[in-house]
Structures are given as C-alpha cells and as structure tokens.
Amino acid sequence: MLIIQMLQRHNLLAFAGSIHFVTTTTQIRGDVFTDDRICREVLELFEWYRNKFSVDCLGYVLMPDHLHAILHQEQAEIVIPPLMQSFKKLTSRRCRPVRFPAATLWHSRYDDVPVPGTEAVRTKLEYIHANPIRRGLVERAEDYPWSSARDYFDWTAGVVRITRV
After folding, report:
1. Most exposed among 16, 92, 103, 142, judged by the fewest C-beta atoms under 10 Å?
2. SS3 39
3. Is 129 inside any structural domain?
4. In-domain check, residue 165
5. CA-to-CA distance for 146 and 134, rounded, in angstroms?
6. What range does the domain containing 99 cover?
7. Burial class (CB in 10 A: 0-12, 13-18, 19+), 83
8. Phi-psi region of 80 (alpha: psi -120 to 50; beta: other; left: phi over 0)
9. Would you say residue 159 lies in a domain?
10. Domains of the chain: total
11. What is the structure's pLDDT at 123?
12. DSSP 3-state helix, strand, coil percentages of the chain (rounded to 5)?
C-alpha cells in the first residue's frame, strides 16, 4: 500500500530529465548518524541503489538525522520512489545505530521537490553543502566527510559518485 501511495504522490514528478530534491529524515531526531562506519555504509548503500536505478546524483549530504540528495533521472519511468523505499528498507536493517535497537530508523514518507533548472540546482547545492556549517559540525563545507561538497570544492571524490552541474 505504501509504494502505491508513493507512486501516486510522485507520479507527476517522473519524466525523462527530471531533477528531484529529495529529503528523508530519521524517526528519532538528533544524533543518529554519528559513527563514521555507519555513515559510510549508509552512503555506500545509497550509491548502490543510485546505480541500480540508473539515477545521477548532483549532490548530497548525510546529516546526523536526515539525508538530502539532488537526483536526476534520464528515464521516464517512476524510479525515485522505489529507489528511496529500497534504500530506506535496507539501511533500516543494516545501519541501525546500536543506541536505537527498537526504533524505526526512517520516517515512512520522504520529500521530493522538483528542481526547475540549473540555477535552482545551484541554490539547492549551496543549501545542502551549508547544512553541516549551520549545524556547527564544521567551519567549511568541504571539511564534512558525508557530503558532496568536496567533489565541488576540492575535486576529491566522496562516497556517492556525483555528476557535476
């Protein structure tokens, strides 16, 4: 039932060349993703599903309690909802921090906002790359290891392969 609701809600966003600003949050707000090993595994699984569903990632950041990603789909099929559902299901099983053994890891819903063009993509990239600075985790965006900021600022590849805009 959940996948049907997600497909209905995101049906208008699914067309060839569409760009999606996706946000998913953890059920427990706060410092869920603080262990480097877990953060790496979450992003490695995101990368695996990104490849499986043939979606380009233009930018991302994994914060202690949420994930932002800017995704570009070339095909016209509905791919973002099954990508997100599969990613969240597997990370819930494999990447649950020890401190939260019984809690559901992710909210069942996620936000998917269409991004209308290159300038809007740049604005979203600036927003997600500044997230760790606003949260007080780092002073410079490129110092945060769980973000695509390094890919843009110093050309060091992050965990998720990005397509630069």
Report:
1. 16
2. helix
3. yes
4. no
5. 15
6. 2-153
7. buried
8. alpha
9. no
10. 1
11. 96
12. 40, 20, 40
Task: Enter the tokens of residue 58.
Answer: 């233009």
Q: Report which of 56, 57, 59 is spatially closest to residue 126, judged by C-alpha positions.
A: 59
Give the C-alpha separation, 86 to 66, whole Å.
16
For residue 61, being part of any structural domain is answered with: yes
Q: Measuring CA to CA, which residue among 149, 144, 142 is closest to residue 125?
A: 149
Supply the pLDDT for residue 14: 62
pLDDT tens track for 13-37 = 667 778 999 999 998 888 888 889 9
Q: Are strands 111-114 and 55-62 parallel, antiparallel or unpaired?
A: unpaired
- As given in the structure block, the two tokens for residue 113 are 């906002």
Where do the DSSP E strands lie in the chain? 18-25, 55-62, 66-73, 111-114
Token output for 147: 């973000």
Rounded mean pLDDT, 35-52: 94
Instruction: Collapse the DSSP code of 106 into the 3-class scheme (helix H, G, I; strand E, B; otherwise coil) and give the result.
Output: strand
Residue 74, pLDDT above cutoff 90: no
User: What CATH number is given to the structural domain containing 24?
Assistant: 3.30.70.1290
Between strands 55-62 and 66-73, the pairing is antiparallel
Q: What is the rounded distance in angstroms from the CA atom of residue 132 to the CA atom of residue 14?
A: 30
